[in-house]
Design goal:
The complex is a heterodimer of chains A (353) and B (604). Chain A has a domain of 121 residues. Chain A is 76% helix and 0% strand. Chain A has 17 helices and no strands. By secondary structure, chain B is α+β, with helices and mostly antiparallel strands. Chain B folds into 4 domains: 196 residues, Histidine kinase-like ATPase, C-terminal domain (Heat Shock Protein 90, 2-Layer Sandwich), CATH 3.30.565; 122 residues, Ribosomal Protein S5, domain 2 (2-Layer Sandwich), CATH 3.30.230; 82 residues, Rossmann fold; 121 residues, Four Helix Bundle (Hemerythrin (Met), subunit A). In chain B, 41% of the residues lie in helices and 19% in strands. In chain B, strands 5-4-3-6-2-1-7-8 form an 8-stranded mixed beta sheet, covered by helices on one side. In chain B, a hairpin with a 2-residue loop joins strand 14 and strand 15. The chains are: A mainly alpha (353), B alpha+beta (604). Chains A and B meet through helix 2, helix 4 and helix 6 of A and helix 16 and helix 17 of B.
Chain lengths: 353, 604
């Protein structure tokens, strides 16, 4: 069984990121669970968590993490506290992305993370950072602003996100508050190449496309879209592809069609509600524009993907999130985006002449 | 107000150069060669007639001298740029044309990585210019003096190795590094030492060689005979080069190491960006004149022009492969055989390549490995024969394929294994290219419903077996059914969801995971993944199943079910849980006891 386990892990290494990679790792975990040591099962799950984050199945991280956290607590001296806490940060960024999880549970998980940070002597910086994003995602802007101050005030340590990721998050924060100029100023060190990491500037390019359009900086938006398309790969960036789809729906319909056809299968396969919601909000905007034109081409997508079905899916997810959050933020998001798209499309057409 | 310059202690700068900017300390040789070649280019531009040459001399005490007969420097030029970092005498000329390699003027400083003093002796090609000596040290101090002696036009740079860097000044090492960086430079470069002069750059670059010569060159460089050599060209990037088709398969994860030259000076031996990522089955040697280098001059700035050049170079490879399919079908077939995986990656990216290669790519089918053209022929043949089902089926995973392969073959279905990297996508794309082919993704959980249902009377007979199977297998999340199917020797068909291992992991987390996440785990496994795990379909056509149905002994029937189930797991190579192992052992023991018991009874 050891050789089968090792063989599976070798195969995993050879594969590009995606579902097959996860499936093989799941088999390795099963082998470890049934026939090898708990140490093997732990290490395999920790690797698996890494892969799940990079794929379009981030919900699987929550499954592997929950087991690892319990195992870590059972034998705290045997595993790295830093690693499990680092994974906990990923979890914190995703746990609210399931509308099935109630507010009180989310708060309990945040509190647990908070206590563990103190226990292991880490700064609360990542804790506040995640609270900012959680509150922004449910439209609680005052709360988000309050936590933003705490985030900036907390000291940086080796448990904090790297400076590139943080700088990117500052930009995102201001974009979410619709303070686009300020957001762009925050991204300056990234765009000047002073800070970068594995995911920045790829995600930065995507985040700044809509703000650039809103600021009327169409030429820069065009350049940024090109860079974003070059730098993103894989279904793990589904939401980001949705944002680019929105941009191309405004700027270049033929590219939008191509991107839609390339990503729709991953969109349909994605089960993480928040990712799915955002992707299909973008798809809806695309299909609205697509159907408003007099087009002969048939989109290369399953017949079930009609505008009506997408609208139902968006409504279903928005309602689930809003019910949990006790707000109407998600339901208005889609309508607001539609209005804004019409405005931006007209402005872009005027710029293009 | 006077303009003031910053006073810079170069020690920090040198640390920056050696530890952060350059990936290899031997880069000082490239920088010195570069300065020499640029000086010669500048002198040529001044219209002066001379025999260009760069000579590198090795002296005692690990001292090296780099001589060139280029334009030399005046005192003003020395003061103007050597003493100021980031400035360069090439700037004005650079704006006018772009024949120079260097751009940043920090090149000479890279010598301080290996020495503590640079002595530069120079005479400008300007009429009546004096001989000058400049001595610079890493702390930023320098001195200039005029020399009385008459020296030829040009520049000589003297450096002596500091401790731990002597090896760069050994003859063998210096020769190797000069060849590495300067082999393809046009200006003659000579290494002179106690063993006499050696010409460094006496070979043509491979992109100027004939095909045969380039192949021999590739074999020497890579210690392997390449399958073929592909000429590379990009007019917008003023780039030319060769790509060697590797004679062995390479992993997707392997870091590419293309050798890249800029204006014929080697800048990197491990560039992985100059060709598109799909081109991982070649090793390229490329010279680029039209791209801007990064500060380290070891790669290029990745702007629009860069990507256009990358695309053009990729197109060269594609065109070559397309031509090969007509001009040399044998070589074409060999390339497919060896670079099967790479070509699949390429075919997904590019429709033209897809059309070209797809007929020759082989896939695993229920009847063994077949090339796509054979598969399509088989399909056409079965259509002519009036077969009921002329669709092509593909499974999403290897495991699903294994589950149904044997049975699907008996039904004359053409099922392809989509479980290998890219195969699923490639097969699904068939309908985009060939209108008359129908491709369906096989739902294995639903596979058994394709078989003939039983007559009501037979179903009645099977009902007790089914009821017991559902009861026995419920803890293993397995549902049972019964159908009549071929081949008769297969007693059961076991199909699982491709997410079975994930679901089992979730199940384990429910009992062993952190309490705080209990609802999260439940929501994911019960709401996001609300699917059955497995189905066990009994074959009514199988004699053993018939016997199990007929068994009146409930315990025996139960044991049969346990054995059918665990054997199906074994055959499918599924990792068994402790409980499933116990089930298997139990059923085997029961049969052994019954068998041995009856043998005992017979003997008594």
């Amino acid at each position: 069984m050891r050789s089968r386990f090792d063989g599976l892990r070798d195969q995993v290494w050879e594969l590009p990121k995606g579902k097959q990679k996860l499936a093989l790792m799941e088999e390795a975990i099963r082998v470890a669970d049934e026939h090898l040591t708990r140490e093997d099962a732990y290490e395999a799950r920790m690797s698996y968590s890494n892969m799940a984050v990079e794929s379009s199945y981030p919900e699987r991280l929550l499954i592997s993490f929950s087991w690892c956290l319990a195992e870590f607590d059972r034998k705290p001296g045997e595993h790295s506290a830093h690693m499990i806490m680092w994974h906990y940060k990923w979890v914190l960024a995703r746990v609210w992305q399931l509308p099935q999880i109630g507010k009180s549970e989310i708060e309990r998980i945040f509190a647990d993370f908070h206590d563990r940070c103190l226990k292991y002597g880490y700064s609360l910086r990542p804790y506040y950072q995640q609270l900012v994003h959680y509150n922004l995602a449910r439209g609680e802007l005052d709360e988000a602003q309050r936590y933003y101050k705490e985030w900036k005030a907390a000291k940086r340590d080796h448990f904090s996100d790297c400076s590139a990721c943080e700088q990117d998050s500052y930009g995102r924060y201001y974009f979410d508050l619709n303070q686009n100029k300020r957001g762009m100023r925050m991204l300056k060190p990234i765009l000047e190449g002073k800070v970068r990491c594995r995911s920045v500037p790829q995600t930065t390019y995507v985040n700044m496309m809509e703000p650039l359009l809103k600021l009327g900086q169409f030429a820069q938006a065009k350049e940024t879209a090109k860079k974003a398309m070059r730098s993103l790969d894989g279904a793990g960036y589904l939401t980001e592809f949705g944002s680019i789809l929105e941009y191309y729906t405004i700027a270049d319909m033929s590219k939008a069609v191509k991107l839609f056809e390339q990503t729709i299968a991953d969109g349909l396969a994605c089960r993480m509600p928040w990712m799915r919601f955002h992707y299909f909000v973008s798809v809806r905007l695309f299909l609205l524009q697509w159907q408003s034109g007099n087009r002969r081409k048939k989109l290369a997508s399953p017949d079930s993907v009609t505008l009506e079905w997408v609208e139902q899916e968006v409504d279903r997810l928005a309602e689930a999130f809003d019910r949990r959050n006790g707000s109407s933020y998600c339901r208005t998001l889609s309508a607001n985006k539609e209005r804004q798209m019409l405005k931006l499309k007209a402005a872009y057409a005027a710029w293009k002449g | 107000m006077n303009a003031m310059n910053f006073q810079v202690n170069l020690n920090g700068m040198i640390d920056l150069l050696s530890n952060h900017l350059y990936s290899d300390n031997s880069v000082f040789i490239r920088e010195l060669l570069q300065n020499a070649v640029d000086a010669i280019t500048a002198r040529k531009k001044r219209g002066q007639h001379f025999e260009p040459q760069v000579t590198v001399e090795l002296h005692a005490a690990h001292t090296a001298a780099f001589h060139d007969n280029g334009c030399g420097l005046t005192e003003l030029e020395i003061r103007d740029f050597l003493s100021r970092i980031g400035s360069t005498s090439k700037k004005e000329e650079m704006d006018a044309g772009d024949d120079f390699i260097g751009q940043f003027g920090v090149g000479l400083l890279s010598c301080f990585i290996v020495c503590d003093e640079i002595v530069l002796v120079t005479r400008s090609s300007n009429e009546g210019a004096p001989a000058l000596e400049w001595r610079g040290r890493p702390d930023g101090t320098y001195s200039i003096r005029e020399l009385a002696a008459s020296i030829p036009v040009g520049t000589s740079i003297y450096i002596r190795a500091k401790e731990d860097y002597e090896h760069y000044f050994e003859h063998d090492q210096m020769e190797e590094l000069l060849r590495r960086y300067g082999s393809f430079l046009d200006t003659p470069i000579v290494l002179d030492s106690q063993w006499g002069p050696i010409r460094i750059n006496d070979t043509l670059p491979p992109w100027r060689m004939s095909r045969e010569e380039a192949l021999t060159y590739g074999e020497r460089e890579y210690y392997n005979k390449p399958l073929d050599v592909i000429p590379l060209r990009s007019s917008i990037g003023e780039a030319e080069g060769v790509a060697y088709l590797l004679p062995y398969a390479v992993s997707l994860q392997e870091e590419k190491r293309h050798r890249v030259y800029m204006k014929q000076m080697m800048i990197s031996e491990k560039n992985n960006r100059i060709l598109p990522s799909w081109a991982f089955f070649v090793n390229a040697i490329v010279n680029v004149n039209g791209l801007k280098p990064t500060a380290s001059r070891e790669s290029f700035q990745e702007n629009d022009l860069f990507y256009a050049v990358q695309h053009e170079l990729g197109e060269s490879i594609k065109r070559h492969l397309i031509d090969l399919s007509e001009t040399d079908p044998d070589l074409f077939a060999m390339i497919i055989r060896i670079h099967y995986a790479s070509i699949k990656t390429l075919a997904i990216e590019d429709e033209e390549i897809y059309r070209l290669f797809m007929p020759y790519l082989s896939f695993e089918t229920v009847s063994g490995r077949m090339e796509m053209r054979e598969i399509i022929q088989t399909l056409a043949f079965s259509e002519q024969e009036g077969a009921r089902d002329t669709r092509l089926y593909v499974t999403a995973t290897l495991d699903e394929f294994r589950q149904i392969a044997r049975v699907a073959k008996a039904q004359n279905m053409i099922v392809l294994n989509g479980g290998y990297v890219h195969d699923f996508e490639l097969i699904r794309k068939l309908t985009d290219i060939w209108d008359d082919i129908e491709v369906d993704v096989l739902d294995v959980l639903d596979f058994s419903s394709r078989f003939r249902p039983l007559r009501p009377i037979d179903a009645l007979q099977a009902a007790p077996l089914l009821a017991m199977a559902n009861k026995v297998l419920k803890p293993f999340q397995c549902e049972s059914s019964i159908r009549w199917f071929e081949p008769a020797e297969v007693p059961v068909l076991y199909n699982t969801n491709d997410e079975i291992n994930f679901l089992k992991m979730a199940e384990k987390t429910k009992t062993e995971g952190n309490e705080l996440f209990a609802d999260v785990v439940r929501a994911i496994s019960d709401e996001l993944y609300d699917v059955p795990y497995a189905r066990l379909c009994f074959n009514y056509n199988n004699p053993l199943v018939q016997k199990a149905m007929e068994a009146e002994d409930g315990e025996l029937r139960r044991t049969c079910i346990e054995l059918f189930y665990t054997q199906a797991l074994l055959m499918g190579n599924y990792p068994m849980s402790q409980e499933e192992l116990r089930l298997m052992n139990h059923s085997l023991l029961v049969f052994m006891e019954r068998g041995l018991g009856s043998a005992d009874g017979g003997g008594a």
